[in-house]
Design goal:
heterodimer; A: 587 residues; mainly beta; Methanol Dehydrogenase, Chain A; five-stranded antiparallel β-sheet; 4% helix; globular; B: 167 residues; mainly alpha; Cytochrome Bc1 Complex, Chain D, domain 2; 6 helices
């Protein structure tokens, strides 16, 4: 691990005028929704743990989930209870924080269709539950959303939202706002017709469904309501797909959603256009690889912006949309900050969809820059892919993204900086024509990876979204795939694929503390105040997700599946195997 | 009490075996026998056998390789079937048996942990070509060890266990 500090002075200046999108809806002693708040800041005002004392942090509790799949997402802490949802078979645990050893209050074991294992593109992950109105709401891998009584563990409702027979699975973390549960499917590798749905929180009944592409009638793009900043015309999500390719065009919704109460808009990103062989779907392929702003009450599309038109690199835009107000060019703006897989960090006016700042946060070769007049990337023609292009070399970032949407970034109100786990990987890309067969992969590409410039494969960075500038970075041997949490103690936490959970100084990037948690970290840390009045930090360990596919031989429970070492990261399997553990640390 | 259980079981078994034995066999999917399965009483179940019409047919294997890609098998099992979200099919190890008939069964009916059933869209002939392709893959020597000790080669090919296919 190497540490390099680029600039430190800037962050103090940019903190002025920065603030959260709106006041905290919940007590900072708890963690009630995936992104901590509707704005998705993953920031806590708890400040007991500081750069001065974090070196004394020790594990105070751990628990094996009994599940091997990739432990993405984060625990919740509500009403002196910690809730954890596991990967398939999607067990929900409720731990009593008021007793020594955190014994279980209850556990909920749903009956999940194992057929979903083969429909999930990239391991049997779950990105966590959310809490609202006495209910824990989360998704099961096989296309169901459930609500469970937070006190008793009793199932209150279970709604089928997605169809594994059509390539849809549901590992994403729902958002609850305005009495509604918002969910979406995975399936960008299975040729789904991406959508988002709203369910009634009380009953689980479907309220509305909005597709990400197709005619305006199914996209819910209504005249006078839908006003994209850069695009004009009707049926944009239909006419930008050749040969009706929108019908199986992917654009899944498997990342995080955020919500602005004042503007009354929900925000979410859409994933890749299907199939990877882009020759089969000429056009921009709207609204794949985009951010969409919809009205929570009826799903109406208010604006949309496409980060990667005619995606031919699998640059999903499912990463979190963090809602903060920033002063840009002397003017206070309501912004949305997004670290796209395509390697650019975007600061966008979240009321209008205008791109204010767009700068690369990692090494980028597929595009030279983002043209702020048109909102479009200035693409390098030699990095285009498709059957007609043969094998395209040295595309950066790789399709793991400059940052994985899985590893949610955090934002500190005190420093005004974003804390981002990044990958330094590039890829070659060759494609084949592919046929869509329901419930089988619809991909048609081979994409070997290699480390980017410098030889290291990842870094944890601090980003200034006003200037579009990296402030510091901590380099890591392997890609960094955990989320992060920022605290008012000016300590940030993240984890690594080789199984370390780490703390760094939020202002300087100085590494302060680390602990080996037994398996690689692809989850997102949280912090909370225990019933004893002390601040704790919790993280899920358990490598998986894409890293089940990419790490070589890390799943040891099946003697009939033995794999060669990962070609670009041979050392990774030396440091970790799969296995889910919940860890809590305190002073 | 143990005596009565055995006696009741014997009567039940007798009545099952006594009537319509052939009809019952016909209703059982072929190639459910699998050498990985333990057999109660040491007796093989009365299941059918399937035989591959393309055994060691290089051209059929070539066709099967194409089908492995066009039917999107590689999307889960990886290019070259080295394993991806689905298990490796070239490590010489099998969850559900590795004989030609067992592979046919897996493709035709699917398997419960997400292997889709292709029997509804692929003719028998095509499934046999995919089986022939998989069976034609070089089976690595038995190397269950992966080593990071300097000077010892890491596992470069997947290990082959003792339980690989029969044909």
């Amino acid at each position: 691990m190497r540490f390099s500090r680029l600039t430190v002075a800037v962050c103090v200046a940019t903190a002025l005028g920065a603030g959260p999108a709106y006041s905290q809806a919940h007590d900072d002693n708890e963690w009630t929704m995936p992104g901590k708040d509707y704005a998705g800041t993953r920031y806590s005002s708890l400040a007991q743990i500081t750069p001065a004392n974090v070196g004394r942090l020790t594990p105070t509790w751990s628990f094996s989930t009994g599940v091997l799949g990739g432990h993405e997402g984060q625990p919740l802490v509500v009403n002196r209870t910690m809730y954890v949802a596991t990967p398939y078979p999607d067990v929900l645990y409720a731990f009593d924080l008021t007793h020594e050893g955190y014994p279980l209050k209850w556990k909920y074991r749903p009956d999940v269709n194992p057929g979903s294992i083969g429909i999930a593109c990239c391991d049997t992950i779950n990105r966590g539950p959310t809490y609202a109105d006495g209910k824990i709401v989360y998704n099961l891998l096989d296309g169901h959303t459930v609500a469970v009584d937070a006190d008793t563990g009793k199932e209150l409702w279970k709604t089928k939202v997605a169809d594994i027979g059509d390539g849809e699975t549901t590992p994403m973390a729902p958002l609850v706002a305005r009495g509604k549960v918002f969910v979406g499917p995975s399936g960008g590798e299975f040729g789904i017709h991406g959508w988002v749905k709203a369910l009634d929180l009380a009953s689980g009944k479907l309220l509305w469904k909005a597709h990400n592409m197709g005619p305006d009638t199914v996209v819910l793009a209504k005249p006078g309501v839908f006003k994209p900043y850069y695009d004009k015309g009707t049926d944009l999500a239909l006419t930008t797909w050749a040969h009706n390719s929108w019908r199986h065009g992917g654009a899944p919704v498997w990342g995080w959603l955020s919500y602005d109460e004042a503007l009354d808009l929900i925000y979410f990103g859409t994933g890749n256009a299907s199939p990877y062989n882009a020759d089969q779907r000429s056009g921009d392929n709207k609204w794949s690889n985009s951010v969409l702003a919809r009205r929570p009450d009826d799903g109406s599309l208010v604006w949309a912006y496409q980060f990667t038109p005619h995606d031919n690199w699998d640059y999903d835009a499912n990463a979190e949309m963090i809602l903060v107000d920033l002063t840009i060019h002397g003017r206070k703006r309501q912004t949305l900050v997004h670290f796209d897989k395509n390697g650019f960090a975007y600061t966008i006016d979240r009321a209008s969809g205008e791109v204010l700042v767009a700068q690369p946060y990692v090494n980028v070769t597929w595009a030279k820059q983002i043209d702020l007049q048109s909102g479009r990337p200035v693409v390098d023609s030699t990095r285009q892919t498709g059957v007609s292009k043969g094998t395209t070399q040295d595309i950066c970032p790789s399709l793991e993204g400059g940052k994985s949407p899985v590893s949610a970034a955090s934002y500190s109100r005190r420093t005004g900086l974003f804390y981002v786990s990044t990958n330094n990987l590039c890829m070659d890309f060759s494609t084949t024509p592919t046929a869509r067969i329901a419930a089988t992969p619809f991909i048609g590409a081979t994409t070997p990876y290699k480390a980017g410039p410098g030889g290291y494969m990842g870094a944890f960075i601090a980003w200034d979204a006003v200037q579009g500038k990296k402030i510091w970075e901590i380099r890591e041997q392997f890609p960094v795939w955990s989320g992060s949490v920022a605290t008012a103690g000016d300590v940030v936490f993240y984890g690594t694929l080789d199984g370390w959970f780490k703390a760094a100084n939020a202002r300087t990037g100085k590494p302060l503390w680390k602990f080996k948690v037994g398996s690689g970290v692809v989850g997102c840390p949280i912090t909370y105040l225990g019933p004893d009045g002390r601040q704790y930090v919790a993280i899920l360990a358990g490598i998986g997700g894409d890293w089940f596919l990419l790490s070589g031989d890390v799943r040891s429970d099946d003697p009939a599946d033995v794999r060669p070492p990962a070609d670009f990261a041979r050392e990774l399997a030396r440091h970790t195997s799969q296995g889910g553990m919940i860890w809590v640390f305190g002073l | 009490m143990g005596f009565w259980l055995v006696a009741v079981a014997a009567v039940l078994l007798g009545s099952l075996l006594g009537c319509n034995h052939t009809d019952r066999t016909r209703a059982i999917p072929p190639s459910v026998t699998d050498e990985l399965y333990v057999r109660a009483g040491g007796s093989e179940p009365p299941a059918g056998k399937l035989s591959n019409p393309f055994i060691r047919d290089a051209r059929a294997a070539k066709d099967g390789e194409k089908l492995f890609s066009t039917m999107n098998c590689d999307g889960c099992h990886g290019g070259g079937a080295f394993g991806w979200v689905g298990p490796s099919l070239v490590d010489g190890r099998w969850r559900y048996g590795g004989s030609d008939g067992e592979l046919y069964h897996s493709i035709f009916y699917g398997r419960p942990r997400g292997m889709p059933a292709y029997g509804g869209i692929l003719p028998s002939d095509a499934i046999w070509r995919i089986v022939t392709y998989l069976r034609a893959q070089p089976i690595p020597a038995s190397v269950p060890t992966e080593s990071w000790i300097e000077g010892v080669p890491a596992r470069s090919v997947p290990a082959r266990g003792e339980r690989s296919g029969k044909n």
